[in-house]
Structures are given as structure tokens and as C-alpha cells.
Amino acid sequence: MRKLLLALATLALAANPVFATCGGGGGGGMGGTMPRSSMNMGGQTMGGQRTPVNPYVVPWKSIGANDKPLTTPIVVMWFPVDAREIDTSELNVSRILTLYAAQCVGLQLVKPDDVNTLAKFDVVTKQPTVLLVVDGKVVDHVHPDGRFITSSSVENMIHHELFRRETALDQLLETAKNESATNKDAAIADYQKVWEQHCLAPKQGREAQKALKHLGVIVKASDLRTIDPDMSPAMNARITKAMSEAFEAELAADYPKARALYRAAAAIDPADPVPSRFLGELYRHHTGEWELARATFEHLLTIQPDPLSRAVALHGLGKMTIHMGDSAKGLALFEESIAAYPLALTYRNMAVYWNSERQRAKADVYVQKALALDPHDSYNLIFAATYLADSGRKEEALRIAKENEGDLAASYNLAAIYSLLGNKGKAMELLKRHFYQYERYDDVRAMEMWEARVDYVFASMKDDPGFIELTKMAR
Q1: Full-prediction pTM beyond 0.90?
Q2: What pLDDT, in 10s, does the model give residues 368-396?
Q3: Shared-domain flag, residues 278 and 330
Q4: Are 191 and 173 in contact (CB under 8 A)?
Q5: pLDDT tens across 23-48, in order?
Q6: What is the helix, strand, coil percentage profile of the chain, to 5?
Q7: Is residue 332 situated within a structural domain?
Q8: Measured distance CA(333)–CA(321) in Å, rounded
Q9: Is 352 in contact with 25 (CB distance < 8 Å)?
């Protein structure tokens, strides 16, 4: 792996595109992201039985030395002791933590080698620690109950802080209500103080918005939700089970079943952004129902989504926008997606975009960013190998392709590698596998075939009768 990263650091990308496209090689589906390891999602074997996968991936952000720190009033800082804890902790999967992230609760993962942050907060890495930082000050902490920190202990810590804040805002709302008849300006000032915290306290924010409108002051927030998700234990268990069943169907490539189950899960709690995220990404990537995908993603952005769901929606809208011919708008949506939450999926498609625009250095940066998020993910490795093949590092690219040839979802990129290496027969075989085994719908096939026809990696095959026949559905 280190050898690959070093090779990419000096990679010179060669491109001869027809025009900009996001290509079939960027990937997608599965809610737009996969966890650091299979253990994060459940699915591991315990006592001979497989536990259900959990689609509620918590959007922890790892802040690097050159990244902007989280600026939310409430920040939860997780200090794991090592990489194993990062991969296996139950803090990675939690519906409650995901929904708290939608309320502007910042979730920061501090890696064990971040000595500056460790020193700043006086954290000793002998045991995992979670700190609650409010307005820049540490107000609470959680240590392990046994060996690991439980998600429930962190959830409870956040709940108490939000409850304290909501209680204070309720009191301020009552004060403003009493003032409104005798001191309009004072009432407006108090209502505005409540409104300023509408992301942290949506219910109180809506009350303040309504009261301010009555007093002649209009305040707006495009993503302020009109209803709040049900975070009760009963609902948490019910919708997590429903989403796990839907995700299992998608992983099994039973897309009609997954679509029906995601729709059912979205109806259970319409204020929960995660079912809509998975449903929109299924429409976009697997079934090719782009009108439904666009409508789902646009709706998702109006219900105060968590950062991960926002990023997936913006990426999906960007991908479809570029495909429809508006590259500038699509690229801007990609940039918004990255600002909301960095995804390997978005970085890969940014690399494809800039490579097709002959901006080789920019493309290389995004390849490396995708790898940095998950250097062990086979899809990231295969994607990077297309650039290795294109830059003359043929032996290394071929090795990666052979080691990962069984990855059905990466068939397009595997075909690209073999095409760049001059093995047209193998490239055709893998493209056929991509179109007719991985893809299940003609609408998607038609778009992917069009992308293959304009993708420069297949330029040497574009006049080949077999390639023309294989991509005859191109639209």
C-alpha cells in the first residue's frame, strides 16, 4: 500500500478526452458510502450467526492539520486509542448519533497521532475518551465501560446538553411571549436569540420563527425541518431493523426489493434523512430513475439532513447535472458535497472530471484524497490503478487488477485498466460483465454505455466492431 501511495504522489496523468464526463468508474449505491470495515456495519459472524448490517454510519469528521476546525456550538470529540478501535467501535453506527449530527452537533474524530489536539485537551491515549465541548469549553466526558466506549453513553451525554439548552430556550420563548404585548423590541430581541439556535433546537426555532413573523420580522432557513424525527427507543429499533433489511436486499443486488423496503422505511419516519439518502442513491446509481433520484435528493436537502446525507444528495445531483451537460453547475455541487462531508465517491468523480478536463495535477490530488479516506478499500485501489496504468506503471496496475478481479462492482474500472494496458479482449470481457451482470436496468446500461463510448480510456477500442456492438444501447 505504501508503494502505491508513493507512486500516486508522483503520478502524471495522461488524458485525451472527448469532453468532460463523470464516467462509469466513480461508483455509488449503498447510501453513497461504505464504512471503514465490515465490522462497522454489523454483518460479522457471532456464535455462527451473521448479525444484520447497520446503515446508520455516524458522520465523524477527522480534522487534519490543514483543515478548518468544526465551528458548531456543540462538538463531540472522540479520542480512540488505536486504529483497531476506529474500525470496530460501536460509535461508528448509531441512528441517534447520526440524527444529532443533523442538529448541528459536530462529531470530530481525533486520531491517535494528532499530538497537537491531544495536548490541547490534555488527553492521555491509554484509554479511549469522548469529550463534550460547548462553546469551546469541555463540559463533560465519557470513558469506557469496560474496554470500549458505548454509543449509548455518548448519546446520553449529548441528550442532556441539548435538553438543558432546549429548556433554557423554552424559558426565553416564554419571556418573549410575555414581553410582546408591552415591549415589542425586547420580545423581538429574545425571539431572535432563540432563532439563532434553530439548528440545534429546531422545535424552538420554529416557534421563534412563527412569533417573529407575527411581529413583522421575517426569518428564513431553507433546511429548517418542519417536523422532528422520532428518537424514541421503540422507533430507533423499528426503523434500524427496517433499514437493515433494505440494505441487505441492496447488497444482494435485489434492487426491486430494496427499493420497496427503502420506501417503506422512509414512510416510517419521514423526518429521518437516512432512508431518503439510500433510496435516492438507489434510484440514481442502480435503477436509473433519475427523475425520482433528483426529487428524492432535493426533498432530502429540505429536512435538515445530517452532513453525510447532505453530501450524498449534493454529489448525486452533481453527477446527474454533469451527465446532462451542465459541467460547471455539477462541479459546484461536487464542491458543496465535499464541504458538507468528504466522500471517497465524490473525490473519485472529481478526479474523473478533472482528468477529462486535462487538469492532471488536480485529478491526481483527488485520487489521493479518495485513497486517504480509506487506503484499504478495494474500490479506491482499483480506481487509483487506472491512473497507474495510464501513467506507465503497468506492472503495478496489472497486479492490483488481478488481485481484485472478483470485485463485480469495479468491473468498469478493471476494464479501463486492461484497455489502457492494451488487452482489448480482457477489457471487453469486463465491460460486458459490468453492463450485463453488475447493472440490472436498461436505463442505466444506456447511460453507462454512452459514458464508455466517450471515455478516453477506451479510445483504442472505439472503432472496434465488437465494442460498438457491446455499447449499442448508448444514450
Answers
A1: no
A2: 999 988 888 888 888 888 888 887 889 99
A3: yes
A4: yes
A5: 455 778 889 876 443 334 444 444 44
A6: 60, 5, 35
A7: yes
A8: 9
A9: yes
